[in-house]
Structure to design on (71 residues):
């Protein structure tokens, strides 16, 4: 089994992408980045995060209308 985690918390996703935690939370709240909820914990799939980064390359992630949603 691989030691690479399939899912990341918001904090881990923010750290590995360089996006701030608050911005990452906004993207989730806006429905632009799908997540799994496990109790109070929010998990972002690694493959979904990579797809999100590719689709939104060159876009302003602080502008809700500029961010493309991924499924």
């Amino acid at each position: 089994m691989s030691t690479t985690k399939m899912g990341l918390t918001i904090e881990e996703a923010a750290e590995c992408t360089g996006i701030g935690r608050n911005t990452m939370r906004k993207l989730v709240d806006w429905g632009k980045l799908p997540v799994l909820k496990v109790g109070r914990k929010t998990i972002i799939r690694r493959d979904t995060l990579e797809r999100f980064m590719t689709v939104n390359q060159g876009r302003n992630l602080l502008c809700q209308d500029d961010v493309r949603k991924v499924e």
